[in-house]
């Protein structure tokens, strides 16, 4: 079709990682639902066997290739997870059963293979043994891959694509995103997801424009189409016209100018107009993200999500491996702080290869973070010892996620004390004064913040979870994403309660949830008295500009006024008014 006759089509989703990208798409589908069943004649059986053998060889090659790439980019240990996948394509019992059924059932091989493999996986899944359940997951994964090959479809591999592309998928798990080839993925588009899902958080860290919550976009698009991803406004434009492309080129160059201006702030301090210094740090997920911390002028790391160390592998990270990782990061940022959050697996971050937290009806209310750690003390202590050892070389602080009350906090502190004692008796060096903090991200913790404040050196508010629990809005469910409101009057009251309790006990309080990276809300956070803000490194320069443009009294006045307002939209409107007056160019 000529450019003139071509019509662009627009889809609206939620923009979760700003910026725009234009390119060819690669659609990743969950193909098991559309496996057709058709009869074959006995004379076609040898052809079907031939197709099956070719698909198994192709699958094996893809797995080996992926293994090699992961070994080179992340490490041999992470690549070992694919050994189990290789065993599936070589499993004689499975293969023989498929060949036998082909002869007896006289159906196409995709159908037969799916039948046999699904039954096999279901049987393993029913056995109460974490190892066998793990094998069931491997079989499901490999089954999809073999069927894609039989259908001649592109494999679901984010690492295997050599051309730059825009990835379109039904859903991406945080581990998918963590193993993505950042050089090649220009943009991300998904059917599911929301702003505070960990996939969205990763996309922002990687600086990849992303749109989520597009419902059934994978069914509407085909690999090879050209799209424009506007991750700022959540707009996906299929076959954009030359006029649209020109308009976006202009927007991008304006964005680049703002980014260049913001770069100049790198060496400056995040001090308000009236001279109050706000510690501005960065959130990281992977050790290599540390480069972006310095490059964006953050004052250290306010949240290191260490659970990413446990994903995409099939053995737990050892104490030495963790120590080496934390030590390198601590050395890079010292004398600035590195706040290590003990691992927060569960919810949307599952690590089926290492930690068995699956099959929960309500994962975000389930066996997650500190709850899992306190019942698996050996795994917890391995991490705590590694963190304590790393504290000898840098300004390391520790914080515990998902604290719901005093007993839990005291228990975690007691386990930490045991680790300290053990290292001390083994004459292993640790830092002299290591600050210990609690994440406040559960309403019960917020409501008892005055009690918790007596036991720790700082609070770091996880607004992503605090909002989801306070408003009962699942943070990854796109159907209710419109109900997820950071400026809800209830959230504002909880934030005030936490900040006031911290200051009454003379400890500092920061925010490390996504709210800290939203420039529209910085006036509110400063007015509430937050001492620290920690945001995705790519957002740090904007937050710094916002802090430098504001004065504390005007922010305090804003809080006073907004506490009297009844709805989230009124509160947001007031915040935007002040933000627009001080740094309108950063909004929208
Ligand atoms: C939060 O809940 O706000 C937070 C920072 O932790 P996470 O997003 O990893 O749950
Ligand atoms: Mg959290």
Quaternary organisation of the protein chains: single chain
User: Could you name the CATH class of the largest domain?
Assistant: Alpha Beta
List unreliable stretches of 5+ residues.
none
Gyration radius (Cα, Å) is: 25 Å
Helix fraction bin = 40-55%
Mean pLDDT metric: 90
- Give every kind of bound small molecule, once each: phosphoenolpyruvate, magnesium ion
CATH architectural arrangement of the largest domain: Alpha-Beta Barrel
Strand % is 5-15%
> What characterizes the major β-sheet?
8 strands, mixed
Strand order of the largest sheet: 1-8-7-3-4-5-6-2
CATH fold type of the largest domain: TIM Barrel
CATH superfamily annotation of the largest domain: Phosphoenolpyruvate-binding domains
Shape: globular
């Amino acid at each position: 079709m000529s450019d003139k006759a071509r019509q662009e089509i627009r889809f609206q989703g939620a923009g979760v990682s700003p910026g725009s990208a234009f390119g060819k798409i690669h659609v990743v589908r969950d193909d098991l639902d559309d496996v057709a069943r058709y009869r074959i004649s006995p004379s076609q059986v040898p052809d079907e066997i031939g197709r099956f053998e070719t698909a198994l060889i192709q699958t094996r090659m893809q797995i080996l290739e992926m293994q090699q790439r992961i070994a080179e980019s992340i490490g041999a240990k992470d690549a070992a997870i694919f050994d189990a996948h290789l065993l599936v394509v070589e499993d004689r019992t499975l293969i023989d059963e498929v060949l036998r059924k082909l002869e007896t059932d006289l159906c196409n091989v995709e159908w037969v293979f799916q039948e046999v493999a699904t039954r096999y996986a279901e049987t393993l899944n029913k056995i109460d043994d974490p190892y066998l359940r793990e094998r069931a997951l491997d079989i499901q994964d490999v089954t999809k891959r073999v069927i894609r090959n039989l259908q001649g479809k592109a494999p679901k591999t984010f690492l295997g694509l050599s051309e730059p592309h825009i990835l379109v998928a039904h859903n991406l798990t945080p581990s998918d995103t963590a193993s993505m080839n950042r050089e090649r993925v220009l943009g991300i588009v998904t059917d599911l997801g929301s702003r505070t899902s960990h996939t969205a958080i990763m996309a922002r860290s990687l600086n990849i424009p992303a749109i989520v919550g597009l419902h059934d976009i994978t069914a509407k698009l085909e690999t090879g189409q050209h799209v424009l991803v506007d991750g700022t406004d959540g707009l996906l434009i299929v076959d954009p016209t030359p006029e649209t492309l020109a308009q976006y080129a202009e927007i991008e160059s304006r964005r680049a100018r703002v980014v260049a201006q913001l770069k100049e702030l790198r060496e400056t301090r995040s001090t308000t107009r009236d001279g109050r210094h706000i510690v501005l740090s960065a959130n990281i997920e992977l050790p290599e993200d540390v480069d972006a911390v310095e490059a964006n002028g953050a004052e250290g790391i306010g949240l290191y999500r260490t659970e990413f160390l446990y994903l995409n592998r099939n053995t737990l990270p050892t104490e030495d491996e963790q120590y080496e990782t934390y030590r390198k990061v601590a050395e890079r940022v010292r004398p600035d702080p590195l706040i290590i959050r003990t691992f927060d697996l569960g919810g949307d971050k599952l690590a089926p290869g290492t930690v068995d937290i699956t099959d929960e009806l309500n994962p975000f209310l389930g066996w997650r973070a500190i709850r899992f750690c306190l019942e698996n003390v050996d795994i917890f202590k391995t991490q705590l010892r590694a963190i304590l050892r790393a504290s000898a070389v840098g300004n390391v602080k520790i914080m515990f996620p998902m604290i719901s009350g005093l007993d839990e906090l005291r228990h975690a502190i007691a386990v930490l004390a045991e680790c300290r004692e053990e290292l001390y008796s083994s004459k292993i060096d640790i830092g002299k004064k290591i600050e210990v903090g609690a994440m406040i991200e559960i309403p019960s913790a917020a409501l008892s913040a005055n009690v918790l404040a007596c036991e720790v050196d700082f609070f770091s508010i996880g607004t992503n979870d605090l909002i989801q629990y306070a408003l009962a809005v699942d943070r990854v469910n796109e159907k209710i994403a419109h109900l997820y409101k950071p400026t809800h009057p209830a959230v504002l009251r909880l934030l005030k309660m936490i900040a006031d309790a911290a200051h009454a006990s003379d400890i500092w309080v920061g925010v490390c949830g996504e709210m800290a990276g939203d420039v529209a809300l910085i006036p509110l956070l400063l007015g509430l008295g937050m001492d620290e803000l920690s945001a995705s490194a790519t957002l740090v320069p904007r937050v710094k500009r916002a802090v430098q443009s504001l004065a504390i009294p005007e922010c305090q006045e804003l809080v006073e006024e907004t506490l009297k307002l009844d709805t989230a939209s009124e509160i947001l409107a007031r915040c935007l008014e002040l933000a627009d007056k001080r740094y309108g160019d950063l909004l929208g």
